[in-house]
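This section describes the prediction task in plain terms. A model, or a person checking by hand, is given the sequence of a single protein chain and must write out its three-dimensional structure as a string of tokens. No templates, partner chains or ligands are provided. The sample shown here is typical of the held-out split.
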Amino acid sequence: MAIEMRNKRDTNFSMASMSDLVFLLLIFFMLTSTLVAPNAIKLLLPSSQSKTMSKQTITVYINKQSNVYVEERRVEPANLENVLYGQIRNEQAASVVLRTDKTVPVQDIVVVIDAVNQINQKHGTKHKVILATKPKR
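The expected answer:
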């Protein structure tokens, strides 16, 4: 007498749950990859509509002719780092306010930012550059 089992085992594999898992992982990675921010130069850009003021330690001016002035003294871009360090060497976290004409190329602005970053790297300070704007009317 042959004994038969009541419950038969199904040997087929269902791929439905595997495809659901793949789509969930795809959505997860798409969402998390959009949250990653690229490295960029960090500037403190004051809003031109608010009246946020910062304690300014030193002011750097760049005019239409790309002449750089530290306070009232004209400085060559190659000597900018030394002049800035001479002004802010006694402070740990100074604010360098950058006032430029709106037609000044971005490269001239980056020269000032690089000079402050070099001072921070060499001396372990936390100086920052603030780009000054005029209020909207």
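For orientation: Residues 38-47 have pLDDT under 50 and may be disordered.
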